[in-house]
Amino acid sequence: MPDDRTTVTELATALGMFPHSDVRTSLSARPVELAITDGTWARLADLHASGTYPDEFAAAFANGRAFLEAPDALRGRRPRLVEWTGGRRPPGDEVAPVDLRIDHVYLVSCKYLSRNIANPSPARLFDGLLATVGDWEQSDWYLRTAPDEYRALYAACRTSTGLDDLPDDPATLTAVDRRRLRLALPGRSAYPADAQDHYGALCTRVSVESARRWGDNVARQRSAERQAWRLLRIGNATYFLLGADTRRPLRLRVASPWDWRQAFEFLDLDIRPGRAGQPQVDWSVAYRERPTQKHRVVEGHVEVRWSHGRFAQPPEAKIYLDTPSDEIPGYFPLSAEPDQPRLWD
Question: What pTM, to 2 d.p., does this model score?
Answer without folding.
Answer: 0.88
